[in-house]
Amino acid sequence: MDTQLKRGLLDICVLAAIKSEDSYGYKIIKDIQPYLQISESSLYPVLRRLETADMLSVYSVEHNGRLRKYYRINNKGIMRLNAFSEEWKELTAIYNYVTREVKK
């Protein structure tokens, strides 16, 4: 898969993974892996990028004596997911055009 396309989809997948509930790195990876391969070394730059873009916020909670970072989607992140849904309609139309069968 094209690197730039994968990067964009990774951002969307991370936002989607935390849309319904706050989550932490390991759980986000497990939630996304059935759909897209991701490692910790790929996830954390995405999380920092989304935080810098003000699409999510971060807070820490103690878990088993250690602080665990949790990520929460905010309004700008929700708006990005909604925009992606609209973009996907356009991509689907392009895909249908490119893969249409040629009539004889």
Strand order in space, largest sheet: 1-2
- Kindly provide the radius of gyration, computed on alpha-carbon positions and rounded to a whole number of angstroms: 16 Å
Number of domains: 1
Number of helices: 4
Which helices and strands, and how do they pair?
Elements: H1 3-17, H2 25-32, H3 40-52, E1 56-63, E2 66-73, H4 75-99
Antiparallel strand pairs: 1-2
Helix pairs in contact: 1-3
Describe the structure in your own words.
The protein is an alpha+beta fold and 104 residues long. The chain has a single domain (3-99), classed as Orthogonal Bundle (Arc Repressor Mutant, subunit A), CATH 1.10.10.10. It is built from four helices and two strands; from the N terminus they run αααββα. The protein has a two-stranded antiparallel ribbon. The longest helix has 25 residues, at 75-99. The chain is elongated, with a radius of gyration of 16 Å.
